[in-house]
Amino acid sequence: MRKPGDWGNGSRPRHPLTTLGILTLLLAGPLGLTPPAWAQDGTSAADGQQVFVQSHCSGCHGELGYGGAGPPLRGNHILPVTDYVIAQILVGRGIMPSFADKLDDRQIAAVATYIRTSWGNKDGPVDAASVTKIRQFLTTHQALPAPSDTGE
Question: The pTM is what?
Answer without folding.
Answer: 0.69
